[in-house]
Specification:
The protein is of the alpha/beta class. It has one domain: TIM Barrel. It has ten helices and eight strands. It has helices spanning 56-66, 86-95, 111-124, 153-162, 181-191, 204-217, 233-240, 249-256, 261-277, 296-317, and strands at residues 45-49, 72-75, 100-105, 128-132, 166-171, 193-198, 223-228, 282-288. Strands 1-2-3-4-5-6-7-8 form an eight-stranded parallel β-barrel, surrounded by seven helices. α1 (56-66) links the parallel β1 and β2. α1 (56-66) runs parallel beside α10 (296-317), α2 (86-95) runs parallel beside α3 and α8 (249-256) packs antiparallel against α9 (261-277). It is globular and about 50 Å long. This is Methylenetetrahydrofolate reductase. Keywords: FAD, Flavoprotein, Oxidoreductase. Belongs to the methylenetetrahydrofolate reductase family. Its cofactor is FAD.
Length: 318
């Protein structure tokens, strides 16, 4: 990784991958080509897409459950379990009635394969890719598999922009160095990013502070903020175990101890979305997480309900 630091720096400044501090004491500014800015329309509701790996039937059913409740789905890429190739996934989701954002990481692909993926995705109709460096594998996760990291996230952004793709990027407002995270997002914008998706924070006020600082630093691209969807201990654990992500423990506890945790979790997610959408510069939300430990179909139904309620609230104010 050249243009660091990544978003997984722990609160005490330690690296998420090894013992010791992050090797990047400061944000490395973008020094590559700066493409011409293109206007991008951001989705109001972007929903995490979770299905069983290598299961076309589950992929299709999950897509159909989400199709009428969001503007796009965010297809992740997992370091501990492979899945179908991006172009096959994208084609299946498009045929199922949803617009996919495909995550491309640099962990398992060199720049030639990344260019192949980008060109293939563009050919089947994908407009946006989320460009990430990618989580490195711990020593006990697929130890038989090598890791590539020929590029990092910002250089992948530059490659995607050079091919006329819309590059979305993540940013973690709570990861050290916190004061420089807004500037880091601006550097990603300079590399060619057209959209940004923020990781979870514990309270919306932290997003407001981040956005104000980013605007002062020159950020102009649309930003989506993450909304955590939790309805049981399993869905909470998924989000609580990831470095750089913050949840409000009091809210999580109130959901888990509610008479109806599913309804409490949906209502809490909608409340968080309303607070985030009121922040200047936040134009959409990412409905994030598995939403349920009861299976992908149940999780999709819960996230669809959250999306529908957010849309109803927004349209009621128009």
């Amino acid at each position: 990784m050249h243009f660091g630091p990544c978003g997984g720096v722990r609160p005490d400044g330690q690296c998420e991958m090894r013992a010791g501090p992050c090797v990047f004491p400061d944000v490395i500014p973008w020094v590559g080509p700066v493409p011409e800015t293109r206007a991008v329309t951001a989705p109001l509701v972007l929903t995490d897409f979770t299905c069983d790996p290598f299961d076309l039937a589950d992929m299709t059913a999950t897509a159909e459950a989400l199709a009428g409740a969001c503007d796009a789905v965010l297809v992740g890429e997992h370091q501990n379990r492979p899945d179908f190739p991006p172009v096959l996934t994208a084609s299946t989701l498009l045929d199922s009635g949803v617009q996919p954002w495909i995550t491309l990481s640099c962990r398992d692909r060199n720049r030639v394969v990344l260019e192949q993926e980008l060109r293939g995705l563009a050919l089947v109709g994908v407009k946006t890719v989320l460009c990430v460096t990618g989580d490195g594998r711990a020593y006990d996760v697929r130890p038989d598999v090598t890791q590539t990291f020929d590029l990092d996230g910002p250089r992948l952004v530059s490659l995607a922009a050079s091919l006329a793709m819309t590059a979305a990027v993540p940013e973690t407002p709570t990861a050290p160095p916190v004061s420089q995270r807004p500037q880091r997002l601006v550097h990603k914008q300079r590399a060619g990013a057209g959209l940004a998706v923020l990781n979870h924070v514990s309270v919306p006020a932290m997003v407001a502070d981040f956005m104000a600082a980013a605007r002062r630093a020159g950020l102009t691209i649309p930003v989506l903020a993450a909304v955590a969807v939790v309805t049981d201990e399993a869905s909470a654990a998924v989000l609580q175990g990831l470095p750089g992500l913050g949840l409000d423990d009091a809210v999580v506890n109130s959901i888990l101890t509610a008479p109806d945790p599913r309804e409490a979790g949906i209502a809490a997610a909608v409340d968080e979305a309303r607070a985030l959408l009121s922040i200047d510069g936040v134009v959409g939300v990412n409905i994030s997480g598995s939403a349920s430990g009861a299976g992908t179909r149940i999780g999709a139904e819960i996230k669809a309900e959250v999306g529908q309620r957010i849309r109803a609230w927004v349209h009621s104010d128009e």
